[in-house]
């Protein structure tokens, strides 16, 4: 085991096993930020001219369709603010796409309703077959790997992309942005969208055929949809000042939108997964990369971040309640769930996977200058 060390500038540490430090104890995420991101990063500049050019391109691509673009609305700050920008600043014809994975908290559902109504958007909701979702999620827990976020994330992503292609909507707007996300959680914490691994895990541990569960493999999405169906992604939040607190205030004042206590905590499953499973079983705490991003962006002091990390990720009583809730919803007892959680830890390499393709994809993206973040896999 490597001796514990924490970056002297951000709060990433050796729970990211591939982290390296220079002689001042500064980590490679921070060095990558200085070298590849900071010189091009314009967080205090609204680039409306460029945004207008992007809007014109999106409108042109959508002129023969009912909608110019589609965006996944989760009720969280990023996607809600994105919807606001797309409608009020870019004046696009938007389809708000909502995926019901069975885990959304009321606050998320209410936020979605407020944004859709406030911005007068058309909305489509795809409800994932719950039995299939539960079977895949339980399979992932039994597989003992860290990335329990896969079944939900994949369902949300695949449902949206498949729908867009089917309905000839060319542009997907995403709430990803470089203002809050220069440090991604390390791949060993949250592995990537690897359908091959998911299928292998489901084949080993699943009990029910996945008949309607939305799927979209990497080649389909990166090659077929992109080059044969003309699908594009756009990142409008990169063109505007995106101060999360101010954005949340605006959404609240205009539409009655409600803030969550933590990023991603709009969803019981994600709260349990990031707040308990990941730190408890693997020692991975996604608050570290979130806080480190804020430190590099200058919106949080390292001292306050460390104070935040001293607190448990979430209230222990709430955690127990969530654990019972998750177990019950997945159709097992809390004791059975505990036994599965305490089982051996595994990594994606223990299953069939597409790691080589992901590595190649990242290498090519870096070569073409499309990926400046420090993804080391
Ligand atoms: Zn650092």
Give an overview of the whole structure.
With about 375 residues, this protein is α/β, with parallel strands linked by helices. It has a single domain, classed as Rossmann fold (3-Layer(aba) Sandwich). Helix content is about 50%, strand content about 5%. It has a five-stranded parallel beta sheet, sandwiched between helices. The chain starts with about 25 loop residues before the first helix and ends in a 10-residue tail after the last helix. The mean pLDDT is about 90. Bound molecules: zinc ion. The site of zinc ion (ZN) has 8 residues, from helix 1.
Which spans of ≥5 residues are poorly predicted at pLDDT below 50?
none
Question: Can you tell me the CATH superfamily?
Answer: HUPs
- What's the total count of β strands? 5
The average pLDDT score comes to 91
Q: Which topology does CATH recognise? A: Rossmann fold
Helix and strand element order: HHEHEHEHHEHHEHHHHHHH
By CATH, the architecture is named 3-Layer(aba) Sandwich
Biggest β-sheet: strands ordered side by side in the sheet: 3-2-1-4-5
